[in-house]
Amino acid sequence: MTVRQLHLNLFIYPDGHHEAAWRRPESQPERITDITYYQELAQRAEAAKFDAVFFADGPALADNIRYAARGGLEPITKMTAIAAATERIGVIGTSSTTYNEPYNLARQFASLDHLSNGRVGWNIVTTSSAAAAHNFGLDAHPAHAQRYERAEEFLDVVTKLWDSWEDDAVLADRESGVYADTDKIHRIDHEGRHFSVAGPLNAPRSPQGRPVYVQAGSSEDGRSFAARWAEAIFTAHQTLENAQEFYADIKARARSVGRDPEGLKVLPGISPFIGSTAAEARALEEEFNDLTQPAYSLKQLSNLVGVDLTAYDLDGPFPTEVVAPVGDRAFHSRSQLVLDIVARESPTIRQLCHRLAGARGHRVVAGTPVDIADTIQEWAERGAADGFNVMPPWLPGGIDVFIDEVVPLLRERGLFRTEYTGTTLREHLGLDRPASQYAPTPQKETA
Amino acid sequence: MTVRQLHLNLFIYPDGHHEAAWRRPESQPERITDITYYQELAQRAEAAKFDAVFFADGPALADNIRYAARGGLEPITKMTAIAAATERIGVIGTSSTTYNEPYNLARQFASLDHLSNGRVGWNIVTTSSAAAAHNFGLDAHPAHAQRYERAEEFLDVVTKLWDSWEDDAVLADRESGVYADTDKIHRIDHEGRHFSVAGPLNAPRSPQGRPVYVQAGSSEDGRSFAARWAEAIFTAHQTLENAQEFYADIKARARSVGRDPEGLKVLPGISPFIGSTAAEARALEEEFNDLTQPAYSLKQLSNLVGVDLTAYDLDGPFPTEVVAPVGDRAFHSRSQLVLDIVARESPTIRQLCHRLAGARGHRVVAGTPVDIADTIQEWAERGAADGFNVMPPWLPGGIDVFIDEVVPLLRERGLFRTEYTGTTLREHLGLDRPASQYAPTPQKETA
Ligand SMILES: Cc1cc2nc3c(=O)[nH]c(=O)nc-3n(C[C@H](O)[C@H](O)[C@H](O)COP(=O)(O)O)c2cc1C
Ligand SMILES: Cc1cc2nc3c(=O)[nH]c(=O)nc-3n(C[C@H](O)[C@H](O)[C@H](O)COP(=O)(O)O)c2cc1C
């Protein structure tokens, strides 16, 4: 069998990804700020040999907190506490290039990579929530293209900072009194349109050299950015065809900038409702959907399409004619995904809300463990995915079902590891450790 | 006996506070980025019932890294990993009001307070290292007065953010589907000279309400700032008289702004060289001083006094006539402290370097355990301190000697706890938990 092994991350969302999960009897919304809740989830994923846990983030409060369990722990601290409670699993967290200073972000991720012994990944985003702007002294969220332009320079700066100490800069020679070979610690002297940063970083190079560069953003700009920088890309697709198109496109883009496409893993989200029969699984999904609240779902949908939908009949058709152009929205790829569903399925507004309730646009699959494993295998074998961000509709239980029922099937089919073979996240993902751009090239060394 | 109990923090500096500690055979400089090193130190301090561990910080690499073991883990991540490995001890870390965005800082400290169950303190600084400016797009470090002006507004903003959720805002009512009472979650709509921040914070109010506000900065501006905001102040004094003057002044300033001076604890640093005889302790200090390197010590001293001293005779007198005015320096209080030593003792440059090598200007005491305990008791009884930041010259061993030899004497004298009585850092320090400024006042509630 030539199928390569898949990568699986557990994407942890407080009470699960379904927007009504917190209302279910088995949910634990009171633990949303309890770090042991997240540590325990990570430990379960580690016991199942997942590549990593994954966290989304945005620096603003969701504006519909009345109806949704949101507002909890911040990712850097959450990731650190998880790293401290685990040994092998990777820890990937989202941070924004729009609302951080590169020096501060570089320090924290370098420190996390040190203290986790090389298990950290950075999910790079430009921030989808326009409300963030008002928490950072801006009148408005910068335009999509401007955000990606800043992201580009941001990556240049932090990469230089993470490279600024060569791997062998620390000597700690008690006898001579020389702690560091300062010829191997480099100022970066970056001067650009958005940033001017002298460096060097105030920390030695970390075990992975740099955190693993994960990226989330699938628009035209997002894809070019990912092709240049990303080592893994998290993406949302409703259909196999869309996912295949995306996969082929992103790998081609990587190739066209001179990269080995193997160095850029494509990881769509998948949200599994699992039952002992397909009917049971679908009934479970419906139970969840019945707990959704239109005041919440409509607000989410209205944000995505740029039109206030509250005046429309929930059971009437989606008013395609009034929606704002995707290019005016903050989150191009997700707005497009919603319009694609409308074009394909002509749902009522309520049906569309239910389609998005499970995982905000990611693929929701309701079925038996075999159905779920089949879908995963199909996407993997037909060029749509190198792995998945698993997004349980509810937590903590929803990941247990997946681990107990689906993971064994994937193992039987040779699709998923039974033991970790490496210790770093790069090793789990099959990614090389990058050399410092300031290190002498091998040629120079032998000259 | 009416003596109140003292507060003791362990101030962790990588290999100890003496600048040459890393060159000693018992040092572990290879563990500077190993989180277990810091976790173990915190666990020892916790076993000895210390109030907290404490970390300094600055967002720039020390410019004399060739000769000093510097450049390690970043405080937020280090503090989190320590919180995850301990249960009761407080964790205080330094973050700058000059080089952070208030929304980002507020999130991380709130998250830390949640995940430590109320054990976090923020050491507020405006940053002493002028080099930091060049890592944040600035041509120069803002002037001292400007930094404190920004700090003032920064504190206003983050305090509002930490108060923005009333304590009982989360309902998590599954039945009605209401997660949060949005009447109890407040926008802050701050518009000021430096910041414009809408809020609310995207996290519920934390166990302590806010992190404990610790402050380090003892200039005129620093003192006024502390009088308004600080709940504990970390300060450096060479003599009992100076410490008494400072203590009386800071308590008077707190009173004059309408605060209970008991709510502002004064914690000078103390760096103990402990021997079984005073002569042995002094010999140990000399051994350390013999390992200092003039290239390093002179650079530190030159930075503080604003004059390049490398051309001067090390064994000649300190050239008082050429030093820059304190008001031109970044770190007023420390520059003044150095000039005071010169005025008092007329040391040679080398002698001055040795005076500062142990703890960068904090009081170094070499003596028997009884001598150390006597000094601590004298400062406490004669109105110079509510407690101390203990700064072992070397680590990890230097804190063990203090815990084994000095702490029992303090306990015998009724000066230090034998068991924790509370669970939060506020409780350890005897500080009240602040109410949210947005919460209805008790009057309103009963009206
Ligand atoms: C699968 C996926 C996940 C994302 N997760 C986040 C997130 O956690 N936080 C966030 O601010 N933005 C997130 N984004 C959006 C990014 O911020 C992105 O930089 C921006 O909104 C533009 O997205 P686009 O390139 O798809 O238009 C995500 C995007 C995708 C496709
Ligand atoms: C005891 C003490 C400790 C300090 N620790 C730090 C520190 O860890 N990082 C830092 O940037 N500044 C530190 N500072 C200095 C502060 O940044 C301060 O805001 C600024 O330099 C002005 O200090 P001043 O008010 O004493 O002049 C410290 C100051 C004192 C007095």
TrEMBL record, chains A, B:
Keywords: Flavoprotein, FMN, Monooxygenase, Oxidoreductase. InterPro entries: Diverse_substr_monoxygenases (IPR051260), Luciferase-like_dom (IPR011251), Luciferase-like_sf (IPR036661), NTA_MOA (IPR016215). It holds the Pfam family Bac_luciferase. The keyword Transmembrane helix does not apply. Residues 29-383 form the Luciferase-like domain. It comes from the Bacteria. Belongs to the NtaA/SnaA/DszA monooxygenase family. This is LLM class flavin-dependent oxidoreductase. It comes from Nocardioides pini.
